[in-house]
Design a protein that fits this description.
Helix content: 25-40%
Number of domains: 1
Pfam family, one: DUF5789
Protein name: DUF2795 domain-containing protein
Largest sheet: 2 strands, antiparallel
């Protein structure tokens, strides 16, 4: 399952507010597919989260996005603002 599909799954399958342990029990075995290959389960991701209760599908989805592994994140340390400046005095803000 891809990450964009998970929010709808939460809204469809869960009643909010919901405890994290209920999410893991009911949906924890669902595999999330990384864009870079590989996968991890919802239970693995939520195992890194300290929240005990989620008030909405959006809040649960946000937590999931926060705690997915590096394989789900775009290029690390990518900066589309250009420049290789190390000195904060040289940085220009628009």
């Amino acid at each position: 399952m891809r990450l964009p599909e998970v929010r709808d799954l939460f809204a469809r399958e869960l009643t909010f507010p919901v405890r994290c342990e209920v999410v893991v029990e009911e949906l924890g075995d669902r595999e999330l597919e990384s864009p870079r290959g590989g996968s991890e389960t919802i239970a693995e991701v939520l195992g890194r989260c300290e929240e005990e209760t989620f008030d909405s599908a959006d809040g649960l989805h946000d937590a999931l996005l926060t705690f997915v592994s590096e394989g789900f994140v775009g290029r690390r340390f990518y900066d589309d603002r250009g420049g290789q400046s190390v000195d904060p005095e040289e940085e220009v803000s628009f």
